[in-house]
Design goal:
By secondary structure, the chain is mainly β. It has one domain: Roll (Archaeosine Trna-guanine Transglycosylase, Chain: A, domain 4). The chain contains one helix and seven strands; from the N terminus they run E-H-E-E-E-E-E-E. It is globular, with a radius of gyration of 13 Å. The N and C termini lie far apart (28 Å).
Amino acid sequence: MPTSGIIILPPFAKKIIDGKKRYEYRSRELPKHYLNVPVFLLSEKKVWGIIKFTRSLWNGTGFSWKIEVIDEFYPSYSYKHPNGAQCWVKNVQYSKSKQTSLQP
């Protein structure tokens, strides 16, 4: 079970879970310790599933991180969002209370 998670904006998190988004585009390279390591997919202060990044490639304007969905949590779980977290969250603590689905 992962302990860290990545925060993704709602419309993109939904596309990842649905298999419609296979790459995450960022200006920075994927931290090496997250390559091929399961992480929680976080959005709207909820845990939506488990993903892993299998590659980080320079695409000429930024980096493309290849995504593989490992598991989807339906319903999603609430987690304690730390103050100031903008991209990565370490030691994700979640509860298995029922939540609604991601907004379209």
